Description:
mainly alpha
Amino acid sequence: xxxxxxxxxxxxxxxxxxxxxxxxxxxxxxxxxxxxxxxxxxxxxxxxxxxxxxxxxxxxxxxxxxxxxxxxxxxxxxxxxxxxxxxxxxxxxxxxxxxxxxxxxxxxxxxxxxxxxxxxxxxxxxxxxxxxxxxxxxxxxxxxxxxxxxxxxxxxxxxxxxxxxxxxxxxxxxxxxxxxxxxxxxxxxxxxxxxxxxxxxxxxxxxxxxxxxxxxxxxxxxxxxxxxxxxxxxxxxxxxxxxxxxxxxxxxxxxxxxxxxxxxxxxxxxxxxxxxxxxxxxxxxxxxxxxxxxxxxxxxxxxxxxxxxxxxxxxxxxxxxxxxxxxxxxxxxxxxxxxxxxxxxxxxxxxxxxxxxxxxxxxxxxxxxxxxxxxxxxxxxxxxxxxxxxxxxxxxxxxxxxxxxxxxxxxxxxxxxxxxxxxxxxxxxxxxxxxxxxxxxxxxxxxxxxxxxxxxxxxxxxxxxxxxxxxxxxx
Length: 475
């Protein structure tokens, strides 16, 4: 069920929240039961029978967590068993096809008969589900979290429908108290609805609009040499698309959780205004970056074992981060690419960049991120290099083809591109948004009217336009 689909906006969402608000504010247990029912329905809608795997293994997570909390001599054994179980889920459901296909490719070159296998369907949001399941027992083992008092607390934590599919990744300790005790006030509802409406607007009016340009260009590039300006336009469009698509999902998730009484951290902080790639990864998909730093980079040794080991740890973390995003070589390359950039910056480039004007640093960082997004978007590494080559190949310019495509872009689409650029690149945008949030209490009627207008415009777009899934739904 997609947040920007009619069935979610006009059926599931109204019914879920109307029933939720009919339950007395103090009856938190009843609200929790309804949230679990709604979340089960939501996830089963998209994940099908995989929900049985999630609920079954969650019983083991719950049991392992209680044993681990006792700090007995078998504590490490149960931690290892829990990590192995969850990684096994991820490896089977997400990477089984990838490994067998590549193994058969090797066998083919060697003249060995291929291994026949039935493809495994990729469950919705499996990467996010597994990461949250793993953090539960790992945090208990580290003493950073207490085990859930009830199994259903753990079910609610994992299956909260606003964030189960594409994050933000949340630790149990961050919402354990909120599961047991929370009150939703008028301000929570109004803030949540504002945030949800903003996210919906970003999705259907910006991400989905620029996606049309990105899809057209990348589809053409896969079969022919596209003009240089055509290539730049497509790369820029996809860079805007992936930011507004993913940040829109986070906005909508944070908004719905606030309406339900849960408050979690931000997932984006104007990443395209970053001054370096290092700074970019402090601003982009913050919950994922934090997860890899805390549960992989630091356990590998972090920066405590010398420069060479530090660079190797960084590179390994981002290599695996790329593989986490998708079971394909282009994602692995994307992760390795960012890992290499981070190693170069840590090797001394960051200090030298401090002498470079801020605008140039921001532009350079965005350019490097955009090159990375090209490999993220294409199907093969070869297609990625071909696309990047076109960015610097004036000979590929064909006036007729380029002008013909550009002239098909509606003036309103150019306005959307301009709006996307303003939101992405102006540092003042964040201050402006904070100012508007601060003024929401001073001018409540105006704020509510603006929120309703955003929601109405977005809802009309949903009704009249095609449904486009979020990019991260299948990661």
